[in-house]
Amino acid sequence: MISNFTHSESVIYSQIEQAAAIGQRCFAILFDPEEVTEEALIKQIEDLPDYTTHLFVGGSTATEAQTQLTVREIKKKTDLPVVLFPGDHNQITAEADALLFLSLISGENPEYLIRQQIKSVQKLKDSTLEIIPTGYILIDGGVETAVQRVSKTEPLAQDDIEHIVAVALAGQYSGKKLLYLEAGSGAVNPVSVAVIKAVKQYISIPLIVGGGIRTREQLQRAYEAGADLVVVGTAFENGNFRT
Predict the structure, then answer these.
(1) What is the rounded distance in angstroms from the CA atom of residue 171 to the CA atom of residue 107?
(2) Cα angle: 178, vertex 44, 52; to 5 degrees
(3) pLDDT digits (tens, 9 = 90+) for 3-33
(4) How many other CB atoms are there within 10 angstroms of residue 72's CB atom?
């Protein structure tokens, strides 16, 4: 795994793409601005695994102020690239390094397919954030998640692999630079090895996998199945994956 990245404007996606091309594995910790206190954040930054390559910041209902404060505090304590993973257009701050410009392509709610993206334009058009078009695919993790409730969309069944692959390819064909398979925060079941393998077999852009990964064994299985970048949030908050 890569222990660290150097980064500057407009290079974070290239780093992920280059790492995927040579089989180097990326690992991100997700911080939810609603859940993190300054004291806890200091401790969590100190306990980051040495193979962490990115820090994601975002939550389903966090405010702009919470997001900005979390990014600001993180950047005081580490040089790792900070990538916004927004639940809506309010969770954007120019103090981060990059933004996953998410489109929930697994659902049919236009609010999260394009309307939230339009609402974000005024903040983004004059910012220096690196904007990375990302196809976001919600996979059934065995429990109703915050993403499902907020977006009012149904996750895709894990056994409907042919449909999941079709959605992933539609995302790639429409110009997404990343695809993100998400079981959701607190998922009982992570995205299955079969789903990851099938999607990876057909796409030619980097693949992110997150949700429900609680152990290093599950992390390793996701990588072996084809994940280029794995995201862990709740498990890290609960003390797993600490140094």
Answers:
(1) 12
(2) 40
(3) 454 434 568 999 999 999 999 999 999 999 9
(4) 13
pLDDT at 5: 47
Question: CA 99, CA 67: separation in Å to the nearest integer?
Answer: 12
Whether residue 62 is predicted with pLDDT greater than 70 in this model: the reply is yes
The sign of the CA dihedral 103, 104, 110, 112 is negative
Scanning the structure block, which residue is given the tokens 């904007």? 131
Domain 12-237 sits in CATH 3.30.200.20: no
Q: Is the pTM of this model over 0.85?
A: yes
Q: What percent of the chain has pLDDT over 90?
A: 86
DSSP for the chain, written as a single string: --------TT-HHHHHHHHHHTTPPEEEEEE-TTT--HHHHHHHHHT--TT--EEEE--SS--HHHHHHHHHHHHHH--S-EEE--SSTTS--TTSSEEEEEEETTS--HIIIIIHHHHHHHHHTTS-PEEEEEEEEEB--SS--HHHHHHT-PPBPTT-HHHHHHHHHHHHHTT-SEEEEE--TT-SSPPPHHHHHHHHHH--S-EEEESS--SHHHHHHHHHHT-SEEEE-HHHHTTTT--
Span 183-211, pLDDT tens digits: 998 899 999 999 999 999 999 999 999 99
